[in-house]
């Protein structure tokens, strides 16, 4: 996300004028060959100065709790519903999450970017973002309801009709994304992380209630996931209410400014969503429900490894805004190296224990998914490293570069999925994801010297990385005088 004060292309002038009119003090540059001047200063002031490591630990802690509780929900549904029922549940639940995330128009990133600009009208920005989120959520519901009969044509009519009903969740998903972005923009990582952890916890409570009542079916299981978003949205709203009470400026100008940046960064959200959900949508379309159930279980277990790298990326973006390119390279490289090594260690452990964990936790129906799990573990680690590295482009106001990288991977992976799934089934789907993830990582590494005019980030940890990490941990654990 670039915040430059010069070298604007002509098409950026209108967006810059709109941002200035809204009191946002930001301009845009999307020319990948432009020389990078020193970015405009970012307002890092908050309630108090916070350690980046502390933010990462807090964010990772919330995400770790999210993953653990989410794993418990996955175990419960896998055992109770078996592969076929789990596949039906996934068929009903994939699109109510996939489609609204596909239609964000970059609002979360745009809100964080503008929220932290000096002189930003935060009240107006937040109101505009919530209004846009509401409109886009309703639109996702309409589009989803129209698409379900085609995409799920080999499923029973009951599944199709319920999938259409659950599309009402689209508005909740989009509003949660906007509210969480507002919390992260304020460095309220506690609220953001807690909301992530509470979502599967509420789901687990609802699933357990249905199970104890003898009424846990694919339908009630999917309903549990959908309903869980409502209390989370109310919690996040309680954290951003003070920012909604201020004096509002021009709502229209703020909406235009958000969309001006959001549309440019939308490619990042779009490609990220396609990377997360395209494989599941195609498996639902091309394979039987039982195969989808097995795939959902292996995918869920492999995604436990994304906790650290996702937490690092969420903290790195707002922390990196305003840094010079050389400083940003050093910060991003160190974050990528450390998160990568710890994720690889965790991935090795999960892979070794996979033959034991799958039948023990999920049931004997899933014991043959070991190869599938190992491929998805590797893909999750590579994708996480790419996510951390691309934050450098986002912080320097170059979402277009991230869009180009991600779209290249997606343009490669979707045809590969269509080719390999019919021939090799679930292993083909996971292999297509792994190959595409390596392509995105290579393109991301190449983008640093080509677009940012800096060196290629080093991904092999050095002794100094661990020395600095040890020093930060000591400062956190040493009582202050």
- Give me the number of helical elements: 16
How far apart the termini lie comes to 40 Å
Overall morphology: globular
Q: Helix/strand-derived class?
A: mainly alpha
Mean pLDDT: 78
Strand proportion: under 5%
H and E string: HHHHHHHHHHHHHHHH
User: Main beta sheet: strand number and arrangement?
Assistant: none
Rounded Rg:
22 Å
Helix content: over 70%
Count of β-strands: 0
> Ranges with pLDDT <50 over ≥5 residues?
1-50
What does this 3D model show about the protein?
By secondary structure, this protein is mainly alpha-helical. It has 16 helices and no strands. It has helices spanning 13-21, 52-102, 107-115, 122-151, 157-166, 169-185, 189-212, 218-227, 229-244, 251-286, 289-302, 307-320, 325-362, 370-395, 399-451, 463-477. Helix 2 crosses helix 7 (189-212), helix 2 runs antiparallel to helix 11 (289-302) and helix 7 packs antiparallel against helix 9 (229-244). The longest helix has 53 residues, at 399-451. The chain is globular and about 55 Å long. The two termini are 40 Å apart.
Sum up the structure in keywords.
481 residues; mainly alpha; 16 helices
Condensed summary:
With 481 residues, the chain is mainly alpha-helical. 77% of the residues lie in helices and 0% in strands.
Give the arrangement of secondary structure elements.
Blueprint lengths: L12 H9 L30 H51 L4 H9 L6 H30 L5 H10 L2 H17 L3 H24 L5 H10 L1 H16 L6 H36 L2 H14 L4 H14 L4 H38 L7 H26 L3 H53 L11 H15 L4
Helix pairs in contact: 1-10, 2-4, 2-5, 2-6, 2-7, 2-8, 2-10, 2-11, 2-12, 3-4, 3-6, 3-10, 4-5, 4-6, 4-10, 6-7, 6-9, 7-8, 7-9, 10-15, 11-14, 12-13, 12-14, 13-14, 14-15
